[in-house]
């Protein structure tokens, strides 16, 4: 993770507010969903931070400069009555941010000046409904050697590669585009792919997680 991104997470962590997080099961009063917990229709707003260290949720909706930090979830992806693992739908609105580093999510939807950083875990689908001026709002951090995925018409509809963190797991993410209004650019135009610099790999190797974080 780049220094600027680390500082963003630090700033968000220092200014923690749990008052604007709610869910139907009443599990989010501490700002954390952990092992054995499953949030239902979770709402996060007003600069609040929600962290997943396990468990899961059917829906997490973010707004008003809030932040979602997914460190891990229960796996595999399953509903409440099937074991309650992973997050089915993450929707990020209104300058909110998502950092996804582990676990599993079926769908991440980024719109209205929101942003997402993905550097680990399993994400099945990403959709961006944003104006061209929004720029690269979705950052994917992975090893060199990644590649775009293409549909039958030769259009970019996903990405595949290998995470350089957390065990070098392989990933494959499909992109969904605006298929209703047809006025927003394709999702891939908002995606920025970041690969570690050689110096970063050396530091990670020397830092105690030897070999596991080296791109191969």
How would you sum up this structure in a few lines?
The protein is mainly beta. It is built from two helices and 17 strands.
Give your account of this protein's structure.
The chain contains 2 helices and 17 strands. The longest helix is centred in the N-terminal third of the chain and has 12 residues, at 3-14. The model is unreliable at 1-18 and 205-212 (pLDDT under 50). Strands 1, 3, 4, 6, 8, 10, 12, 14, 15 and 16 form a 10-stranded mixed β-sheet that branches. It has a 7-stranded parallel β-sheet with strand order 2-5-7-9-11-13-17, with no helix packed on it. 10% of the residues lie in helices and 39% in strands. The protein is mainly beta.
List keywords for this structure.
seven-stranded parallel β-sheet, 2 helices, ten-stranded mixed β-sheet, 17 strands, 10% helix, mainly beta, 216 residues, disordered N terminus
């Amino acid at each position: 993770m780049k220094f600027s991104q680390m500082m963003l997470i630090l700033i968000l962590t220092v200014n923690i507010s749990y008052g604007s997080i709610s869910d139907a099961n009443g599990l989010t009063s501490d700002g954390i969903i952990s092992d054995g917990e499953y949030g239902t229709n979770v709402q996060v707003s007003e600069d609040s931070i929600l962290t997943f260290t396990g468990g899961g949720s059917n829906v997490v909706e973010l707004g008003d400069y809030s932040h979602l930090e997914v460190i891990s979830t229960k796996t595999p992806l399953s509903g409440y009555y099937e074991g309650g693992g992973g997050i089915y739908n993450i929707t990020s609105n209104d300058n909110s941010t998502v950092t996804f580093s582990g676990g599993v999510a079926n769908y991440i939807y980024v719109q209205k000046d929101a942003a997402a950083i993905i550097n680990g875990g399993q994400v099945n689908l990403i959709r961006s409904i944003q104006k061209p001026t929004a720029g690269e709002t979705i950052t994917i951090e992975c090893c060199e050697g990644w590649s775009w995925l293409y549909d039958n018409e030769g259009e970019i509809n996903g990405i595949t590669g290998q995470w350089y963190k957390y065990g070098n797991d392989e990933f494959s993410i499909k992109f969904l585009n605006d298929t209703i209004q047809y006025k927003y650019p394709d999702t891939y135009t908002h995606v920025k792919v970041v690969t570690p610099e050689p110096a970063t790999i050396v530091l990670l190797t020397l830092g105690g997680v030897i070999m596991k974080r080296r791109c191969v």
